[in-house]
Amino acid sequence: MKKILILNGPNLNLLGEREPNIYGSETLNSINDAIDEKARSMGYEPVFFQSNSEGGIIDRLHESRLDCAGVILNAGAYTHYSYAIRDAIAAIKIPVIEVHLSNVNSRDEFRKNSVIAPVCRGSIAGFGSFSYTLGLYALDNILGGSHD
Ligand code: DQA
Q1: Which H or E run contains 73?
Q2: How far is the centre of ligand 1, averaged over its atoms, from the C-alpha of 95 (Å)?
Q3: What is the best residue among 97, 102, 110, 120 to mutate for testing ligand 1's pocket, by most ligand atoms within 8 Å of CB?
Q4: Is the CB of 100 under 6 A from ligand 1?
Q5: How far does residue 66's CA lie from ligand 1's centre (Å)?
Q6: What does pTM read for this prediction?
Q7: I need a surface site. Which of 70, 75, 105, 129 has the fewest CB within 10 A?
């Protein structure tokens, strides 16, 4: 069974209490539970990781090339300025889908730029927790199904 990594970056551990008017009231655990069920129903084994540090995200991306078929990544604010995360994505061969809960293009100017977008297979933003589900559909399409 192919594994998919759902990787969340800084401050996303506070979903549910963090700016709910922007990010909604669901916690990261409840979002992950829904993705877990969805991914399994599609025949994938999802693995979940969250880190508030750049190095933690980079280390998990490196590891994912050994055990995962693809990655759904919400890099949080690192999206907008982390060349180190961008380089880590470029260094691995598996597809990485950039996702955001909020519509980053309708917010602050600095959020309109993603330094990771050019090295991701595609980007999804603005659909709340459904952005992760859309990321899953995109990966499934790229991978050609869940079977090895
Ligand atoms: C976010 C958007 C980022 O700009 C922000 O820094 C986040 C969350 C989102 O999911 O909408 O932490 O990635």
Answers
A1: strand 70-74
A2: 20
A3: 102
A4: yes
A5: 27
A6: 0.97
A7: 105
Residue whose entry in the numeric block shows the structure tokens 């990544």? 73
Ligand 1 proximity of 2 Cβ (cutoff 6 Å) = no
**Total count of residues recorded for the chain:** 148
The string of pLDDT tens digits covering residues 53-96 is: 999 999 999 999 999 999 999 999 999 999 999 999 999 999 99
The type of residue at 87 is D
By DSSP bridging, strand 70-74 and strand 3-8 are parallel
Q: Contact at 8 Å (CB) between 112 and 100?
A: no
Q: How far apart are CA 3 and CA 66, in angstroms?
A: 10
**What residues does each domain of the chain span?**
2-142
Q: Is the dihedral of CA 93, 94, 100, 106 positive or negative?
A: positive
Nearest to 68 by CA among 94, 107, 88: 94
CATH number belonging to domain 2-142: 3.40.50.9100
CB 70 within 8 A of CB 94: yes
Tokens representing 147?
Answer: 């079977």
Amino acid identity for residue 21 in this structure: N
